[in-house]
Amino acid sequence: MGRLDGKVALITGGARGMGKSHVRLFVAEGAKVIFGDVLDELGQAVADELGDNCRYLHHDVSSESDWENTVEATLEAFGKIDILVNNAGILRQCPITDMTLAEFKQVLDINAVGCWLGMKNVVEPMKANGGGAIVNISSIEGLTGARPLHRLRRQQVRDPRHDQGRRPGTR
Ligand SMILES: NC(=O)c1ccc[n+]([C@@H]2O[C@H](COP(=O)([O-])OP(=O)(O)OC[C@H]3O[C@@H](n4cnc5c(N)ncnc54)[C@H](O)[C@@H]3O)[C@@H](O)[C@H]2O)c1
Predict the structure, then answer these.
(1) I need a labelling partner for 104 at 20 to 30 A (CA). Which of 16, 28, 110, 157 fits?
(2) What is the pTM of this model?
């Protein structure tokens, strides 16, 4: 008996890396999984390998319409959403003086807006199902701080109180 028997999970950025591991483990533990990515060939290959309990969809997490399509497709395929894993993320490591505004906005769009859109879109289906779990993957550097500005996003995802100038663990 798997730890996720009967559960339906939506996982972002599952074509490679940690996201691919999450997809594999969730399926091995009995979950039905829909996962997305922008790397369609890699994503489809993962789904083909894992069988009927796992489906791949093209899903750019920075796109509101992609989120709507993915949530709809998950409900159509498996009837509910128990778990969302916001895993997709990018890293742009360079001095602020070398980074363009477009690059900075892309980091925020994928890493911060992508998580926000995910949470926004699964809340109602989860409520209709009696609850659920949302996992936002982040980095320890979102708590400790670091030089590259992409980590601003991680602070916002880990602890929205950063927006108010407070540190985690303080009131
Ligand atoms: N690997 C680490 O040591 C580490 C440490 C801390 C945090 N993280 C976080 O874990 C997550 C996964 O990291 P990883 O190391 O597996 O990275 P990775 O680059 O191997 O995988 C990220 C995946 O996200 C996908 N992706 C990128 N942009 C996307 C978009 N717009 N829409 C949908 N998918 C998109 C990529 O195609 C890729 O498949 C990231 O959020 C990362 O910030 C990783």
Answers:
(1) 16
(2) 0.89
Question: Dihedrals φ, ψ of 34, to 5°?
Answer: -110, 130
**CATH number 3.40.50.720 is the correct assignment for the domain at 8-137:** yes
3-state secondary structure of 54: strand
Give the distance (Å) from ligand 1 centre to CA of residue 56: 16
Q: What is the mean pLDDT of the chain?
A: 89
Residue 53 DSSP label: T
Let me know: does 33 contact 53? Beta carbons within 8 Å: yes
pLDDT tens per residue, range 95-118: 889 999 999 999 999 999 999 999
- As for ligand 1, residues whose beta carbon falls within 6 Å of it are 12-13, 15-19, 36-39, 59-62, 87-90, 110, 137, 139
User: Which atom number of ligand 1 is nearest to the Cα of residue 66?
Assistant: 32
Torsion over CA: 98, 99, 100, 103 (sign) = positive
